Amino acid sequence: MAGNSFGTLFRFTTWGESHGPAIGVVVDGCPSLLSLTEADIQPWLDKRRPGQSRYTTQRQEPDQVRILSGVFEGQTTGTPLSLMIENTDQRSKDYSEIASKFRPGHADYTYWKKYGIRDYRGGGRSSARETACRVAAGAVARKVLGDGVTVRGALVQMGPHTVDRSRWDWAEVDNNPFFCPDPQAATEWADYLDGIRKSGSSIGAVVEVVASGLPAGLGDPLYDKLDGDLARAMMTINAVKGVEIGNGFEAATLTGEQNADEMRAGPDGEPEFRSNLAGGILGGISTGQDVVVRFAVKPTSSILTPRQTVDLQGKDTDILTKGRHDPCVGIRAVPVGEAMMACVLADHLLRHRAYARG
């Protein structure tokens, strides 16, 4: 199976399955002499960890990370970092009844058609469990970016319910189980998702990720556009079905006058933008403004409501998926989106430095 690696200079490769003994990631291209310990990585994994509220899967995984290589006396050595997370709460028996059936909306059928084999235990390699590895890589990427760059994510829509941006408060993101920046919306979402969860169904969501403190000049104008790499990064996250940069699809409703981010000379002689509809990227290159990305996450396909499907013999049947599943997988996609943003930015920062030195 190809396609397990992501990035150019800052590059990571994930490995492992949802119900195997462990999952992990190898990060290559990390500069030497960066301070790094397991304690630097663990808080980001804790943010993604399952079982922290009734609104996420009740699988109880501590997601304790171990650094196996690439660090000596608390500093990166410049060699590949190998990070491992053990799986401790697998319940493979929950999936025994669907071993010969394809779950609608999942990768079961396409995986089987491509490889001729399928790990039905929670989706195996195609499970969202793999995203813990990305979060670990993202923690390393944040070290590369340095303290001057901030990457933050928030849930801005659950089903048809959106946040009120006039109430946006980043401090509220850590005060509710939805990573929601609007405290009133978070309260409303709690009742809404309780109803979805108790009915055995699921709902989709929209996540917004914002990076601040970036220099202008990251990215290239054609096939290595910064926004192109960000879009690809977000689309590789499980269940993501759409990505937009800045005002995204809304740009199609605007005139040229409305959509242009006008500029004026700043006190230091550098241009100052009067808006950021472009999401901090023009022509594939960062402007120095906040980089803003949003992505849409579909409803979790594993639900208790019976659905029509076929089995391995091509016969019609019905299926319902037991086990422990997120009623809104978009919630735990927030730290994953942050991680992918950090990895792309770290990669482009290292490429920019190499270009500048050339």
TrEMBL record:
<keyword id="KW-0057">Aromatic amino acid biosynthesis</keyword>
<dbReference type="GO" id="GO:0008652">
    <property type="term" value="P:amino acid biosynthetic process"/>
</dbReference>
<dbReference type="Pfam" id="PF01264">
    <property type="entry name" value="Chorismate_synt"/>
</dbReference>
<dbReference type="GO" id="GO:0010181">
    <property type="term" value="F:FMN binding"/>
</dbReference>
<keyword id="KW-0456">Lyase</keyword>
<protein>
    <recommendedName>
        <fullName>Chorismate synthase</fullName>
        <ecNumber>4.2.3.5</ecNumber>
    </recommendedName>
</protein>
<feature type="binding site">
    <location>
        <begin position="238"/>
        <end position="239"/>
    </location>
    <ligand>
        <name>FMN</name>
    </ligand>
</feature>
<dbReference type="InterPro" id="IPR020541">
    <property type="entry name" value="Chorismate_synthase_CS"/>
</dbReference>
<feature type="binding site">
    <location>
        <begin position="125"/>
        <end position="127"/>
    </location>
    <ligand>
        <name>FMN</name>
    </ligand>
</feature>
<keyword id="KW-0274">FAD</keyword>
<dbReference type="GO" id="GO:0004107">
    <property type="term" value="F:chorismate synthase activity"/>
</dbReference>
<comment type="pathway">
    <text>Metabolic intermediate biosynthesis; chorismate biosynthesis; chorismate from D-erythrose 4-phosphate and phosphoenolpyruvate: step 7/7.</text>
</comment>
<dbReference type="InterPro" id="IPR000453">
    <property type="entry name" value="Chorismate_synth"/>
</dbReference>
<dbReference type="GO" id="GO:0005829">
    <property type="term" value="C:cytosol"/>
</dbReference>
<keyword id="KW-0028">Amino-acid biosynthesis</keyword>
<keyword id="KW-0521">NADP</keyword>
<comment type="subunit">
    <text>Homotetramer.</text>
</comment>
<feature type="binding site">
    <location>
        <position position="54"/>
    </location>
    <ligand>
        <name>NADP(+)</name>
    </ligand>
</feature>
<dbReference type="InterPro" id="IPR035904">
    <property type="entry name" value="Chorismate_synth_AroC_sf"/>
</dbReference>
<feature type="binding site">
    <location>
        <position position="324"/>
    </location>
    <ligand>
        <name>FMN</name>
    </ligand>
</feature>
<comment type="function">
    <text>This reaction introduces a second double bond into the aromatic ring system.</text>
</comment>
<keyword id="KW-0285">Flavoprotein</keyword>
<dbReference type="GO" id="GO:0009423">
    <property type="term" value="P:chorismate biosynthetic process"/>
</dbReference>
<feature type="binding site">
    <location>
        <position position="48"/>
    </location>
    <ligand>
        <name>NADP(+)</name>
    </ligand>
</feature>
<feature type="binding site">
    <location>
        <position position="283"/>
    </location>
    <ligand>
        <name>FMN</name>
    </ligand>
</feature>
<keyword id="KW-0288">FMN</keyword>
<dbReference type="GO" id="GO:0009073">
    <property type="term" value="P:aromatic amino acid family biosynthetic process"/>
</dbReference>
<comment type="similarity">
    <text>Belongs to the chorismate synthase family.</text>
</comment>
<feature type="binding site">
    <location>
        <begin position="298"/>
        <end position="302"/>
    </location>
    <ligand>
        <name>FMN</name>
    </ligand>
</feature>
